[in-house]
UniProtKB/TrEMBL annotation:
InterPro entries (alphabetical): SseB_N
Superkingdom of origin: Bacteria
Taxonomic placement: Bacteria, Bacillati, Actinomycetota, Actinomycetes, Streptosporangiales
Region (Disordered): 1-59
Name of a matching Pfam family: SseB
Name under which the protein is recorded: SseB protein N-terminal domain-containing protein
Annotated ranges, domain SseB protein N-terminal: 57-155
Length: 161
């Protein structure tokens, strides 16, 4: 199973950032965002290191995954999303690198950066990850200064007990 690399751009519309990035939302406002910021900062330091490529310290990324697993995600519900007549739930998706991703946010503040007034729901990250179809990832804070993809192959790690 591959481990997500927070801060790697997944599309031209996604701007990776660090905890001290600019932007209109306060960051971090919860433990998930603190862990995300630490993982991004570590990823940037590893990427900026000179010399032969070595596997960086994965502890901040693993801490982020563990913290996210116990945290909540804010899921935007544009028109047509949400509970359907047949009892299923339709969630918005976006396409990144040939895969489908559900846009989710690490706080209401992050959601509001680009989605002021849009209805949303808050779900436990573990529960959401557990019901996603195989091949679907999570786009954390898409388009915001502090964003990261959770690639489809890494989603099952979030659903673990």
């Amino acid at each position: 199973m591959s481990t997500p690399t927070p801060g790697d751009p997944a599309s031209e519309n996604q701007v990776p950032g660090a905890p001290d990035s600019g932007g209109t939302a306060d960051f971090p406002v919860n433990p998930v965002e603190e862990a995300l910021g630490q993982a991004i900062e570590r990823s940037r330091r590893d990427g900026a290191a000179d010399g032969p490529e070595e596997e960086g310290d994965t502890a901040p990324v693993m801490h982020f995954i563990e913290t996210l697993r116990e945290g909540s995600l804010w899921v935007p519900l544009p028109e047509g999303s949400g509970m359907q007549d047949d009892g299923s739930v339709a969630l918005p998706t976006l396409e990144l690198e040939g895969s489908s991703f559900i846009p989710v946010f690490t706080s209401e503040e992050q959601l509001r950066v680009h989605s002021e007034g849009l209805p949303f729901t808050v779900l436990p990250a573990r529960d959401l990850a557990g019901v996603l179809p195989q091949g679907v990832g999570l786009a954390l804070n898409p388009g915001n200064p502090v964003s990261a993809p959770i690639y489809p192959e890494s989603v099952p790690a979030l659903a673990q007990e």
